[in-house]
Structures are given as structure tokens and as C-alpha cells.
UniProtKB/TrEMBL annotation:
It comes from the Bacteria. It comes from Streptomyces virginiae (Streptomyces cinnamonensis). Residues 133-160 are annotated as: Disordered. Keywords: Membrane, Transmembrane, Transmembrane helix. The keyword Transmembrane helix applies. This is Integral membrane protein. The chain crosses the membrane at residues 53-73, 85-104, 110-129.
Length: 160
């Protein structure tokens, strides 16, 4: 029950974060376009369009992460391999951004990033496949069992 709650909460928080990031990038793009700002002679139109694109890309990525977290909560099953990769990359990104926000913004932003990181990591670890319980995405079901280990007397050292 707790892991479904955490995955659902992570999905909600990721959607809110996506909406806020899209809004911030929209405001930054409009500001860049309206003031004709330029950095080292760069075209202001290109800069504003790149800001819009970056906001849309980050928003889409976070919504994708939220979809995987929501599907995990609804099915009460671990996400598949691709879903885990996406959620892990989001967790790593939030960890790196958390380190940057403590230096560049403030401790409240750091705490927010670490809260999201904790929700992602808790979602991933609470749905981790445990050996022998049959959960997970079935990645290891086709592999043959390992050969039995030899008795202690048959193990030979490799160095003198």
C-alpha cells in the first residue's frame, strides 16, 4: 500500500514540476524575445526558440516519468526495463540539479530537489525485483540456472 502511495505521489509531483518548468521557460523565452537580449552576438530569436524547445523537452521528459510512475502505482508492479531506465535517469538528473541548486539558488530549492529524488528512488527500490519471488519484468526467466558450486576441497587457489 505504501509503495503505491509513493509512486502515485511521485507521479503527481513530477507533473507539477513539469508544468512549472514549462512555465518558467515560457517566461524566459518571452523575456528574451521582448528585450532582444543577445549573448556574444547570438540571435535573440534563436535563443528564445531554443528556450521554448528546452522547456517543452524537459516538460515532456518529466511527464513521461510521471506516466511510468503512475502506471507503476496503478498496476502495483515494477516498471519494465525502459521505464526503470527513464526513472533512474530522472533520479540522477535530480541529484545533479540538487547539487547545483544548493550552490546557485538556495537551500529550499535543494530540499525540493532532494524530495523529488527521494520519491523517485523510493519508487524504484520499493518495486525492485527480489530473487525468487517471481516479481519484476521477467528479464531473467529465460536464463539457465547457474552450475552448482564445487565442494570446498576442489577449489584451487589461482596464485601461490
Amino acid at each position: 500500500m505504501l509503495r503505491r502511495l509513493v509512486a502515485g505521489l511521485a507521479a503527481i509531483v513530477l507533473v507539477v514540476e513539469a508544468a512549472l518548468l514549462v512555465l518558467v521557460h515560457f517566461v524566459l523565452g518571452r523575456t528574451t524575445a521582448n528585450q532582444s537580449m543577445s549573448i556574444a552576438g547570438s540571435d535573440p530569436d534563436v535563443m528564445s526558440k531554443a528556450t521554448y524547445a528546452m522547456g517543452a523537452g524537459m516538460g515532456a521528459f518529466l511527464v513521461l516519468c510521471a506516466v511510468f510512475a503512475a502506471v507503476t502505482a496503478i498496476r502495483d508492479r515494477a516498471p519494465g526495463r525502459f521505464g526503470r531506465v527513464v526513472l533512474i535517469s530522472a533520479a540522477v538528473t535530480h541529484g545533479v540539479l540538487g547539487v547545483l541548486t544548493v550552490a546557485l539558488v538556495n537551500w529550499a530549492a535543494f530540499a525540493t530537489m532532494m524530495l523529488i529524488l527521494c520519491l523517485l528512488v523510493l519508487t524504484l527500490t520499493s518495486y525492485a525485483a527480489r530473487p525468487g519471488d517471481g516479481s519484476g519484468d521477467g528479464a531473467g526467466e529465460d536464463t539457465p540456472p547457474l552450475p552448482p558450486t564445487p565442494p570446498f576441497g576442489e577449489i584451487k587457489p589461482t596464485s601461490p
